From TrEMBL:
InterPro entries: Calycin, Nitrobindin, THAP4-like_heme-bd. Homodimer. Its cofactor is heme b. This is Peroxynitrite isomerase THAP4. The lineage of its organism: Eukaryota, Metazoa, Chordata, Craniata, Vertebrata. The gene is THAP4. It comes from Rhinolophus ferrumequinum. It catalyses: peroxynitrite = nitrate. Pathway: Nitrogen metabolism.
Amino acid sequence: MEPPKMNPVVEPLSWMLGTWLSDPPGAGTFPTLQPFRYLEEVHISHVGQPVLNFSFNAFHPDTRKPMHRECGFIRLEPDTNKVAFVSAQNTGIVEVEEGEVNGQELCIASHSIARISFAKEPHVEQITRKFRLNSEGKLEQTVSMATTAQPMTQHLHVTYKKVTP
């Protein structure tokens, strides 16, 4: 079976497609946490629909134990640069982020966040993400967040090397 043809609506995000591995390990920090490192594998794909599918799977760099997981979809409003990022996370958070793609940079911010009734406090109230393809062809992601206890602060930064198209 032949791979599906990319829907032209998602062409502005084609630079994100592939399997990516953190290189070097990602760095996490937040005022209520000890700084930490993590490995992450990212899969961004399409099935011919006007949407990209994604999964982010983080692992402890030493033990390789699973850590954060999230999966979802990236949609573009046709004939615009407006993007929606819809994500479900293993922490019990479901979020919709919206923003814009400009060239090889995607900047999004939370539009709505829902959580399970027994989610750990403090609760995440706002998230921003920036993805960009750098001059070395590596994908970078920076995540900032605000909680009920902390103002908007950078939380994660990771650089990925593409391992498959």
